[in-house]
Specification:
Number of strands: 13
Order of helices and strands: EHEEHHHEEEHHHEEHEEEHEE
CATH architecture of the largest domain: 2-Layer Sandwich
Radius of gyration: 28 Å
CATH class of the largest domain: Alpha Beta
Number of helices: 9
Largest sheet: 5 strands, antiparallel
Distance between the termini: 89 Å
Strand order of the largest sheet: 2-3-1-7-8
CATH topology of the largest domain: Alpha-Beta Plaits
Oligomer: single chain
Structural class: alpha+beta
Number of domains: 2
Length: 297
């Protein structure tokens, strides 16, 4: 069993009391932080059990955590398959305690000071991150934590969110006898979760024949087409074609055939949901639907 003490300090806590609406989310976030970090570093079969009790010192509110690790598989299989990060190592990699805490996750975020990481160079066991003209070498495991969105959300809930309340000015962590890490209110803003951008999975351009289903004349509205297997919406970004539409030089009817250059992009959105974006880059040919009986003339 490993233990950890986190402390919140400030004028609002002088009587060793913390508003339950502030404390409960912070406790929940700490549990999530340890659980998610354990998942990232030890895999989905590893579990942590977190217990908590209040500890009181003059002018602050401190919380003692104890937690056990467990695995849903045999010990032999666990140690044969991968390196296991023990509880104390987990706390050090998070930057919550230990002699190497300064190069843990919290230390790296404090070092970056809210600046954008412009480059990362990885080796087998380390990573060097570059911010402006500065660089810092860290363990590859710390980089994994830095990149994991659920770990970052939980850390935000442990540090930035509580310190955003009036009268709570400091977060500290360590043991019951020593404070090893501190974050003040100004520094806490650096722990906000970065905006998650879309991640492109695949992208391709093909020439296709599509059948018109519905037309959209409003700007930015999507047209509906069928490729014979199913219907879908697509944005037309061929400005020459759109200009002809505006000038009433293009006439449309149900089931018209378009030969087009199509760009299809599959991507993960901010919620990690797979989506597809279809853009028609060029309308090569527009053929009105056949309205006469075809004879072998």
């Amino acid at each position: 069993m490993s233990t950890l003490r986190i402390t919140y300090d400030g004028p609002a806590l002088v009587n060793h009391e913390m508003e339950v609406r502030q404390l409960a989310p912070a406790l929940h976030a700490m549990g999530d932080l340890l659980d998610n970090a354990n998942r990232v570093l030890n895999g989905p079969d590893s579990r942590v059990s977190v217990s908590v009790k209040g500890s009181f010192k003059t002018g602050c509110f401190a919380i003692d955590f104890s937690f056990l690790q467990g695995w849903g598989r045999s010990v032999v299989d666990m140690f044969n398959s991968r390196e296991v990060i023990a509880a104390l190592g987990l706390l050090a990699l998070l930057g919550l305690s230990g002699k190497d805490a300064a190069r843990g996750l919290i230390g790296v975020i404090k070092w970056a000071q809210g600046r954008t990481i412009r480059k990362v160079v990885k080796t087998e066991s380390t990573a060097t991150i570059y911010v402006d003209e500065d660089s810092l070498e860290i363990e590859l495991k710390v980089l994994q934590l830095l990149m994991d969105i659920e770990t970052r959300k939980a850390l935000d809930g442990v540090i930035r969110e509580p310190l955003s309340h009036e009268g709570i000015d400091l977060f500290a962590s360590g043991t019951d006898s020593e404070i090893e890490v501190t974050v003040n209110r100004t520094e806490s803003k650096w722990f906000a979760v970065p905006e998650v951008t879309e991640q492109t999975i695949s992208e391709s351009q093909t020439e296709e024949s599509l059948q018109l289903v519905t037309v959209a004349f409003k700007e930015d509205n999507k047209w509906r087409f069928s490729d014979g297997a199913g219907s879908f919406y697509a944005s037309i970004v061929d400005h020459d074609f759109l200009n002809r539409v505006d000038k009433d030089e293009e006439r449309f009817g149900k089931n018209d055939i378009f030969r087009v250059l199509v760009n299809r992009r599959s991507f993960l959105d901010a919620n990690s949901i797979l989506r597809q974006e279809v853009n028609i880059l060029q309308v090569i040919e527009h053929t009105p639907a056949a309205r006469q009986i075809r004879l072998p003339l």
